[in-house]
Structures are given as C-alpha cells and as structure tokens.
C-alpha cells in the first residue's frame, strides 16, 4: 500500500474535486464545475449552506445573516455566475426601491452617476462641480496604476477642496472601506468604471439570499454534485508537493484537486504552513477582515412605507427597510428592517462595541423616523466577527491577493473573498469561483465517456 493509500484508510475515490466550504464561493464553484462534468464533493462544516450569506427560517420570518445585495444587479458578478449556469436571478421590483444617503441627521436621495451628483443637495454648487471633475477623472484612470495608493493620495495629488474630500468616504463605502486614507484608489476606480456602465447600482434578489442559494444548490445537485453538511475538513492531505485529498471528522476523500473556499486567514488550521513560501504564509496570516454589528428590528407598523436602503455618507452604516424589500420575509402584519454598522478595521466585535453601536443606530433611527422605537416589537442583534474577509487597502487590493491556483502546492486552489477575485465583498467570492471554473475548464474525459454511453445507448 502506498503512503497516500495508507493515509486514506476508509477512503472514497469517486471525486475529481473536493471543495471545502459551501459559502457563496464554494457553492458557486461547485455548481459551475459540476455543470462542466467534474465529480465534485462539497464539504460544509455547518448545517446550512451560504456561509456569511446564509439565512434561517423561523416563526414565519426569513432571517438573513445581516443583509445582502448584489452590486450592479443584472450587470454584476453574481448575475454573471448565474448566466454561466443558464439561470437568472429574479430581482425585487427596482421601481419601488429607494436609495438614500444618511448624513448629519438627514436623508438625501442617493446620487447615482454624474447627474445625480450635480443635483445633490449634499454639496454646495461649487463643490458639486468639483466632485464631477473628480468623478470624471477617476473614470479615466487605469486602476492597475492605482491599486497601491490610497484614494486620499490620489485625490490630494489633483484636488484641494475639503468639502469634496469629505464625500470621498462615500466612494470608499462603495467597496466597503469608507476611509479615504485607507482604501485602495485602484479598487474604487475599478468599481466606478464597472458601475458607470451598469443599469442598476444595487440589486435586491426577490426573496433575498434564499433564492440565490436555493438556485445554486439545485444546479449543483442536478449535475450530480454531492454536498455533505455537518462535515468539517480537518486536514488537506499533501504528498510530494501535491494536494491528494482531505481528512474530515467523518472520513477521508481522495481527489487530485482540492479547493479551499473559506477565508484564507484560516488556511493553516487545515494544512501545514511548511508547504508554502514564506511571503505567502506571512500575507495569509496578516489578512485584515472587517467586523460589524447588525440588528434586525421587528415592527407592527413599517417606519416608512417605502422599500429601500440607506448608506451612511460618512459613516459605515447600511440599512434595509421594510422586510428587507421583500414582504414575504416576514409574516403578515410584521415588518423587519435591518441596520448594520461596520467597526473600524482591526476593532473586534465585542459586546461592549455592540452596545455602543446599538446606541448609535437607535439614535439615528429616532432622528430619521421619530417615535419608531416605540413600535419595535422585537430585535435580533448579531455580532459579526467577519463581514468582508479582507478590507480593500492597498496591501489587500486585487494584485496582492493570492491567486486562485496555489503557487506552492499543486492541485490546491483558493477561492472566496480573500482571494484574487474582482470587486469587493461577495463579488470577490463569485468572481473567484468563475475564475476557478475558467482555469479548470470542462472535464473532457468524463464528458466524452458520457457522450459515448449515450451514443451506444442510442445505437443498441
Ligand atoms: C452581515 C453581512 C452583510 C454582507 N453584505 C453584503 C452585501 O450586501 N453584498 C456583498 O457583496 N457582500 C456582502 N457581505 C460579504 C459576503 O457575505 C461575503 O463576502 C461572502 O459571503 C463570502 O463568501 P465566501 O464563500 O468567500 O466565504 P464564507 O461565506 O465565509 O464561506 C466559507 C464556508 O466554509 C465553511 N467552512 C470553513 N471552514 C471549513 C472546514 N474546515 N470544513 C468545512 N467547511 C468549512 C464555513 O462554514 C462557510 O460556510 C456581507 C457579509 C456579512 C457578514
């Protein structure tokens, strides 16, 4: 018996690819690869799929883990994954959806594109004209030249208007890092360029993540993918510098391709650091995620009749109003709105921080919808240790993130929101899954075999 066979006593050899983690990245990659003829095993340690974008149904409510939208809706990266799968995301009615910016106790219609900024009362007329010049200039930049600079560095080389400078935090928030002195200018430029061409800036899937995850799981199963819930990978097995399978708390699985689809700062829980170059190991151990607090409030009466969302103009606030824009996410006569705030990078989500944030959120709620706290019938507070796997500083921007194929271990791949996918947050996870599928292509041999079986079946 060879060394691997010895290692893999109770072994299963029927899979080509093992994916560790059924979050947005793992589930998308699983569906894409199964559809391309690969025999895929998806291992998820928890009882549900979706990872940080998961949900639970209880007492007539659909409780999401925080709240989730897809940037750029039908023109975004999630929609691209669905197109590759021959599916479409159904969006909730965009006409009824209102997007606002919160600043200093007031709501402003959220400016979408240059005309929106020209009309926005957020800035004086003079500053609006300057902001338009800033925006136009950003759109003309090559992101590749600016990943390693901050947005503030980019701005101060060209402009000097403090009123406009204050609004740069909103540009940072488009990639979930509303600190101009920290956010990578290249990441903001990249996003703005994509957003400028998109018809919709924020897409709300009808029914929320239940629809998205449900479709991915259905496609995965339809194409023969195998999903094991409640099975934790304890070790990625390596032989002669190549990944050869995994050991879980239940079994061993042999596969020539192993995909780590969880935040990479957890990588060395499953595989020894000694297999990797020291610069990679140092990068992975130093990844800085964002953390936050999210509170769902249940009302008998909606605080506002409009479905919509609010972003903070200069604080990392994000809000979804009215049963997360989907009335079927709450029982009849009940309304849910979700309010979240990101913590400063590096600050842990402790209950003391959460108390501070809850007080801040409630103050803002009362400012905007006086008396609404009196109608609250229940609340659910979540301390979220990892919102985005990595924040988009220059050091964690696109070119610095680890590539999809490991440089050090053959047959080992990395996907998820800490890897070299495009965009920010969940988009990185979706994009990395697309990249993996592009890299591995179709399983030609199996497709040929299946075609042969079908053809011989037709002949006989
Ligand atoms: C509150 C909140 C709001 C957000 N809002 C948005 C939004 O509006 N738009 C957006 O684009 N993004 C948003 N994000 C970010 C987005 O949810 C994440 O970027 C995305 O879900 C990351 O997916 P992933 O697959 O990379 O990782 P994860 O979701 O972390 O998935 C990893 C999976 O691997 C499993 N796993 C880990 N280790 C093992 C192991 N050893 N064995 C087996 N399984 C394992 C985990 O249980 C998990 O299911 C939000 C995140 C949060 C928390």
Question: Short summary of the structure?
Answer:
The chain has 460 residues and is of the alpha/beta class. The chain contains 13 helices and 20 strands.
Strand content: 15-25%
* Distance, first to last CA: 41 Å
CATH topology of the largest domain: FAD/NAD(P)-binding domain
By DSSP (H or I, 4+ residues per run), the number of helices equals: 13
What is the count of β-strands? 20
Task: Please state the overall shape, judged from the principal axes of the Cα atoms.
Answer: globular
CATH architecture of the largest domain: 3-Layer(bba) Sandwich
Return the structural class: alpha/beta
The Cα radius of gyration reads 23 Å
Bound molecules: flavin-adenine dinucleotide
The biggest sheet amounts to: 7 strands, mixed
What is the CATH first-level class name of the largest domain? Alpha Beta
Placed side by side, the strands forming the largest sheet appear as: 8-7-16-17-18-15-19
* Number of separate domains: 3
pLDDT averaged residue by residue: 92
Low-confidence stretches: 1-8
CATH superfamily of the largest domain: FAD/NAD(P)-binding domain
Question: Helicity, in percent?
Answer: 25-40%
Notes on the structure:
With 460 residues, this protein is of the alpha/beta class. It has 3 domains: 192 residues, FAD/NAD(P)-binding domain (3-Layer(bba) Sandwich); 123 residues, Guanine Nucleotide Dissociation Inhibitor, domain 2 (2-Layer Sandwich), CATH 3.30.519; 88 residues, Guanine Nucleotide Dissociation Inhibitor, domain 1 (Orthogonal Bundle). The chain has 13 helices and 20 strands. The strands form 5 sheets. A 7-stranded mixed β-sheet has the order 8-7-16-17-18-15-19, covered by helices on one side. Helix 2 runs parallel beside helix 12. It is globular, with a radius of gyration of 23 Å. The relative contact order is 0.19. The N terminus is likely disordered. Bound molecules: flavin-adenine dinucleotide (FAD).
């Amino acid at each position: 018996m060879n060394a691997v066979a010895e290692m893999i006593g109770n072994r299963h050899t029927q899979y080509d690819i093992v994916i560790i983690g059924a979050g947005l990245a793992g589930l998308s990659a699983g569906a894409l690869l199964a559809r391309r003829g690969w025999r895929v095993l998806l291992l998820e340690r928890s009882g549900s799929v979706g990872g940080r974008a998961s949900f639970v149904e209880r007492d007539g409510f659909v409780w999401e883990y925080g709240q989730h939208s897809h940037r750029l809706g039908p023109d975004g990266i999630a929609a691209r994954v669905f197109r590759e799968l021959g599916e479409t995301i159904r969006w909730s009615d965009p006409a009824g959806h209102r997007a606002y910016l919160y600043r200093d106790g007031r709501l402003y219609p959220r400016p979408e594109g240059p005309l929106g900024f020209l009309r926005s009362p957020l800035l004086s007329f003079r500053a609006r004209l300057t902001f338009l010049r800033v925006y136009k200039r950003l759109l003309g930049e090559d992101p590749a030249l600016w990943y390693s600079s901050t947005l503030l560095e980019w701005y101060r080389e060209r402009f000097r208007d403090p009123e406009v400078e204050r609004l740069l935090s909103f540009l940072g928030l488009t990639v979930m890092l509303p600190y101009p002195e920290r956010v990578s200018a290249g990441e903001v430029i990249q996003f703005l360029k994509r957003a400028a061409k998109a018809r919709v800036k924020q897409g709300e899937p009808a029914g929320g993540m239940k629809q998205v995850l449900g479709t991915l799981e259905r496609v995965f199963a339809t194409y023969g993918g195998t999903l094991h819930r409640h099975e934790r990978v304890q070790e990625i097995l390596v032989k002669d510098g190549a990944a050869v399978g995994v050991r879980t708390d239940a079994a061993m699985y042999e596969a020539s391709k192993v995909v780590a689809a969880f935040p990479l700062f957890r990588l060395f829980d499953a595989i020894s650091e000694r297999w990797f170059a020291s610069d990679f190991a140092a990068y992975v151990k130093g990844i800085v995620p964002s953390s936050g607090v999210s509170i769902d409030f249940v009302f008998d009466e909606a605080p506002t009749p409009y479905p919509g969302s609010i972003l903070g103009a200069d604080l990392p606030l994000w809000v979804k109003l009215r049963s997360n824009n989907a009335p079927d996410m709450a029982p009849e006569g009940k309304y849910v709105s979700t309010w979240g705030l990101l913590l400063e990078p590096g600050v842990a989500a402790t209950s003391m921080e959460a108390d501070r944030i809850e007080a801040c959120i409630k103050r803002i709620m009362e400012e905007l919808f006086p008396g609404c706290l009196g109608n609250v019938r229940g609340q659910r507070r979540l301390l979220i240790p990892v919102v985005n796997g990595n924040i988009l500083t220059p050091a964690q921007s696109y070119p610095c993130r680890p590539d999809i194929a490991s440089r050090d271990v053959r047959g080992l791949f990395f996907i998820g929101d800490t890897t070299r996918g495009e965009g920010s947050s969940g988009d990185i996870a979706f994009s990395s899954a697309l990249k993996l599928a592009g890299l591995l292509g179709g399983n030609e041999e199996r497709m040929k075999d299946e075609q042969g079986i079908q053809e011989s079946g037709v002949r006989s």
